[in-house]
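Structure ticket #2291
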Amino acid sequence: MSASAFMPPPGFAVCRIADGRFAEAVGPLYLHAAAPVRFGLLAEARHGNVHGAVHGGLLMTLADQVLGLTVMLSVGLETPVVTVSLHCDFVSAVRPGDWIEGEATITRATRSLVFVHGSLSHGDGVVLSAAGVWKKVRGSAGAGAADGRERERRR
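Resolution: structure written out below.
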């Protein structure tokens, strides 16, 4: 089934949360905004590996999006966040044509860090479990811009 003819499950719509240009190459990513918030992706042939399964790199990218977007929704979309660490465990395989859903839960938040865990699933089975840490960064352009301003101030 091609993504252009695909109709997501009820309640899911294309996710419009800005997550950078890289995410455009992976998706479309879908969002189910009702609690608990969930994200979804239709695995396509382009996401496959040589064994006919969805590539682990795609699953890790999806986990980064699901956990990161959950953090963004938690801290507010106006607060930039970046991934500090992401740990993923592969549990089972999925194939092109499969619908993959992901959800995440914030487990702890400090002034500058947010800890989160989540999972990707297909049907009733877990595909991948993940845990990570995100950092809130100052300035709308992210940490790189803040570092550049600090270097300029020292000159």
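Closing remark: The mean pLDDT is 86.
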